[in-house]
Amino acid sequence: MVSSRKQKTRIENRLPVARDGLPFILSGAIITAIFSFAGFLSAAVLIGILSLFAIYFFRDPERIIDAPEYALLSPADGRILAVHQLNDNNNPLGEPAIKVSVFMSIFNVHVNRIPIKGMISEIIYNPGKFFSANFDKASEYNENNRITLDTGNGKKIVFVQIAGLIARRIACWIKEQDYVNAGQRFGLIRFGSRLDIYFPADSYLNIRQQEKVKAGETIIGYLS
């Protein structure tokens, strides 16, 4: 878990890129400059292209958060991979639930945002495998970080950061007992991944499978 100061700078980021991407971007720029001065132009061009991709991948655009109090915002950019009605208690929410899975390709913004305001009651990190994030078994077997949020009105939701085939690091910038706001940045997953969100079965669903969504902007449902 990052320190509170580092946590705050990432959540309240004002740079055009996520701070977690700065080591990749700066090291790429330095290596490009060194190769250029040394006369290794082909290598410099290659590293330069990779550095530009790092800037693109770690981009962190500002979002205007404007949603009703009980609206559930998408926690990730991407497309709706699946929507499931779960009629038993065998899921992270522990009650009948709606599960929405958002798939993030390497071309999506990868900064994750809080779906609804409340208090973080539990965070559980689980090491695991690295199946492609668009496979159903990724939810169960891949490395993941499960976050439970209490909304303060007797409801709770669970959202899970899930590593993908080439993702090898899940960043989470919040901690248990934090009070968080809808649309607030809370983490990032590197290089292709998915995010699952579980909310009560009596909630209203506002999206469909294959629909494109934006973190902190697209309303995926409403709590009853």
Molecular structure report:
The structure is a single chain. The protein has two domains: 19-57; 71-222, Distorted Sandwich (Glucose Permease (Domain IIA)), CATH 2.70.70.10. Helix 2 (22-38) runs antiparallel to helix 3 (41-57). The strands form three sheets. An eight-stranded antiparallel beta sheet has the order 9-5-6-7-11-3-2-13. It has helices at 4-11, 22-38, 41-57, 137-141; strands at residues 71-73, 78-86, 97-104, 111-113, 118-126, 144-150, 156-163, 170-172, 179-180, 185-189, 193-200, 204-205, 212-213, 219-222. It is 21% helix and 33% strand.
Tell me what portion of residues adopts beta-strand conformation: 25-35%
- CATH superfamily (homologous) name of the largest domain: Glucose Permease (Domain IIA)
CATH C-level of the largest domain: Mainly Beta
**Which structural category fits the helices and strands?**
alpha+beta
